[in-house]
């Protein structure tokens, strides 16, 4: 029968553990025994505060377990954690003495059922599409004749070699700037995003920016599905081409870029024109210009020949003679008209002169009539009643005048009364 360690004479027995001592022993046993364990369950009570750490409860039908994903681990996840998600995670148990509780510190997470990469790709695509990053109206056209091209890729990979080879074959005189970056594995996405941001700070400004690599598996290409890469491409001020060398799998970088190329070689074909094609276009344009100019010259020649055949240009002296003849005719007609006008005016003047002569008082006097006036007042005397005996009067004749004094006034009958 076990003894009671708390008996009166054994109150300080070494077998008695404090809470801290017992918790420490449990912590050592648990953390050593479960230093790496895989656990499956459903996420609930998920939260991610500003610290970036992820806290959740992992549960099944009969039990539940607290769990945490630290910020550095959460940043490497290829999909978003959320309530209701079935996951399989690997981690170690950690005992937290202040609360006497334990939790699973997760180091790796995979969704159950759907593959991790496929689920991550689908969820991130839905999220970014809802923000409008893949909208067609955001797409920008590529410049027709770029002079400076940037390429974010591995400087030792086949992608840049293929790109430059096709570029040199199609169009010369283009400057290519390589922004070195890993294109697969942990940390590749951050380097690609940094390369894109660096390319946007280069001066003089680049005309086009290519982001890509050669072919590979979905896992190899996964960095081009990372959110940091997609957002860096979306924020680029330079028109971008996604040239991830995999024709079957479409990455999120393909969706957000202005132009998608199936391979780096095709990116070179999309970014610069073919010198042969441009030469052919120039030859065709030259031929069309020559033909149009020839047609125009022919039209002008026909117009000149038509103008030259007109009498005014073929026999200009005829026009001068005709005009001279018309001037002579106009002068003759003008002289005739002026003479006629003068005759009419002379006739009118003669008639007017005759009328004036008939009204001239002097002409009346020449016919034997005279005018009598009072010598003092010069008043014309037309009646004997205006004259008094002894009055001095002046009688005007056609030639000269007679001054006389009235001796007698005789009133004769008026002609109106006869």
UniProtKB/TrEMBL annotation:
Subcellular location per UniProt equals:
Cytoplasm
All copies of domain Exonuclease VII large subunit C-terminal, residue ranges: 133-351
- For this protein, what reaction is catalysed? Exonucleolytic cleavage in either 5'- to 3'- or 3'- to 5'-direction to yield nucleoside 5'-phosphates
GO terms under biological process: DNA catabolic process
InterPro entries found in the cross-reference section: Exonuc_VII_L, Exonuc_VII_lsu_C, OB-fold_nuc-bd_dom
Gene Ontology molecular functions:
exodeoxyribonuclease VII activity; nucleic acid binding
Q: Enumerate the spans annotated as OB-fold nucleic acid binding domain.
A: 17-110
Q: Name one GO cellular component term.
A: exodeoxyribonuclease VII complex
Q: What is its EC number?
A: 3.1.11.6
Record keyword Glycoprotein present:
no
Q: Which UniProt keywords apply?
A: Cytoplasm, Exonuclease, Hydrolase, Nuclease
Pfam families attached here? Exonuc_VII_L (PF02601), tRNA_anti_2 (PF13742)
Question: Which EC class does it fall in?
Answer: hydrolase
- Chief location of this protein? cytoplasm
Family the UniProt entry places it in: Belongs to the XseA family.
Under the heading HAMAP family, the entry gives: Exonuc_7_L
Job description of the protein? Bidirectionally degrades single-stranded DNA into large acid-insoluble oligonucleotides, which are then degraded further into small acid-soluble oligonucleotides.
Oligomeric state and interaction partners are given as: Heterooligomer composed of large and small subunits.
PANTHER family the UniProt entry points to: EXODEOXYRIBONUCLEASE 7 LARGE SUBUNIT
Q: What is this protein called?
A: Exodeoxyribonuclease 7 large subunit
Q: Which organism is it from?
A: Bythopirellula polymerisocia
């Amino acid at each position: 029968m076990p003894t009671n360690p708390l008996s009166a004479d054994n109150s300080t027995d070494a077998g008695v553990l404090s809470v801290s001592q017992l918790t420490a022993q449990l912590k050592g046993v648990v953390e050593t025994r479960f230093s790496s364990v895989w656990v499956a369950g459903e996420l609930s009570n998920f939260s991610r505060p500003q610290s970036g750490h992820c806290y959740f409860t992992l549960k099944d039908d009969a039990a539940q377990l607290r769990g945490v994903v630290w910020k550095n681990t959460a940043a490497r996840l290829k999909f978003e954690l959320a309530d209701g998600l079935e996951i399989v995670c690997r981690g170690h148990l950690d005992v937290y003495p202040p609360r006497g509780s334990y939790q699973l510190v997760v180091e790796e997470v995979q969704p159950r059922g759907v593959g991790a990469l496929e689920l991550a790709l689908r969820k991130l695509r839905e999220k970014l599409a809802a923000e409008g990053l893949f909208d067609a109206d955001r797409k920008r056209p590529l410049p027709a004749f770029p002079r400076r091209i940037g390429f974010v890729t591995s400087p030792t990979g086949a992608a840049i070699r293929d790109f430059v080879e096709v570029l040199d074959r199609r169009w010369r005189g283009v400057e290519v700037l390589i922004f070195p970056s890993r294109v697969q594995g942990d940390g590749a996405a951050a380097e690609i995003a940094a390369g894109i941001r660096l390319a946007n700070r280069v001066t003089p400004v680049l005309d086009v920016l290519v982001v890509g690599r050669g072919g590979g598996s979905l896992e190899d290409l996964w960095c081009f599905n990372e959110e940091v890469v997609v957002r860096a491409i979306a924020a680029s001020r330079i028109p971008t081409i996604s040239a991830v060398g995999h024709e079957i799998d479409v990455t999120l970088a393909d969706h957000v870029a202005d132009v998608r190329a199936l391979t780096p070689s095709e990116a070179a074909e999309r970014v610069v024109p073919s010198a042969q094609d441009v030469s052919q276009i120039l030859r065709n344009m030259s031929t069309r210009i020559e033909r149009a100019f020839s047609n125009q010259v022919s039209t002008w020649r026909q117009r000149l020949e038509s103008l030259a055949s007109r009498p005014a240009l073929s026999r200009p002296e005829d026009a001068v003679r005709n005009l001279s003849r018309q001037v002579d005719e106009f002068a003759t007609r003008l002289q005739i008209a002026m003479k006629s006008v003068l005759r009419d005016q002379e006739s009118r003047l003669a008639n007017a002169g005759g009328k004036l002569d008939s009204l001239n008082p002097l002409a009346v006097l020449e016919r034997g009539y005279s005018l009598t006036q009072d010598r003092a007042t010069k008043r014309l005397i037309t009646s004997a009643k205006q004259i008094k005996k002894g009055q001095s009067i002046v009688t005007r004749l056609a030639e000269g005048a007679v001054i006389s004094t009235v001796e007698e006034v005789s009133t004769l009958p008026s002609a109106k009364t006869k």
